[in-house]
Amino acid sequence: MNKFFTTFAILTIATPLFAQTSLIDLFDNVWEMTKADAANGVQRREYAGYVTLDTSTGEYGLVNVTPGPWVPNNTNASMRLPVRPKDIPENPSPVDTAIYVVAWFHTHTPTTFVTFPYREVGPSQGDFNASIHPYINMPGFAYDYVPAPANGHPSGTIPAGHPINSSVMLYPVTPPERRPTP
Ligand SMILES: [Zn+2]
């Protein structure tokens, strides 16, 4: 019955299982790419991809990771979410041990060199819209900094000049809480 549970459920309910899958390491790799791209001080970009669950092994994967457009320091970054991959096999029967696409994932970018005063952290309205989009229709994750508002800035923000290696967290982008069963 738990064949189609999402990483969101794993994250919030079964942390040891989540850690066992090394999915967080896959997210960390993409975060390192995001930071490396932002370290030049001139431009930066987000990354986006999809989380898969191989029900024959219980292992998660991160596939189709795609960079967003480069943006200069005075511009907010955006993702380029690739087309949602198909399950393998494409039309699994209820008894198949298939590889299911269970969530989407993306990073937000450091503000270390931006020229605007601050930005909000966590999912944007566009991110929430993506999760409920008919072509996506699954929970998402945003990898972004822990809020650290500077004096006089709104809560839920990080300022310009935020140190690039500051603490990050995984934000769920829901609804939906789980993808529909095939
Ligand atoms: Zn986003």
Describe the protein.
This protein has one domain. It is built from four helices and nine strands, in the order αααββββββαβββ. The longest helix is centred in the first third of the chain and has 16 residues. The N terminus is likely disordered. Bound molecules: zinc ion (ZN). The site of zinc ion (ZN) has 7 residues, from loops.
N-to-C series of helices and strands: HHHEEEEEEHEEE
Q: What is the total number of structural domains?
A: 1
Helix and strand content put the structural class at: alpha+beta
Low-pLDDT sequence parts: 1-20
Helical proportion, percent range: 10-25%
Strand order of the largest sheet: 3-2-5-7-9
Overall average pLDDT: 86
TL;DR?
This protein has four helices and nine strands. The chain is α+β, with helices and mostly antiparallel strands and 182 residues long.
Topology:
Layout: H1 7-13, H2 15-21, H3 23-38, E1 43-44, E2 47-54, E3 59-67, E4 71-72, E5 99-107, E6 118-120, H4 125-132, E7 140-145, E8 157-159, E9 168-173
Parallel strand pairs: 5-7
Antiparallel strand pairs: 1-4, 2-3, 2-5, 6-8, 7-9
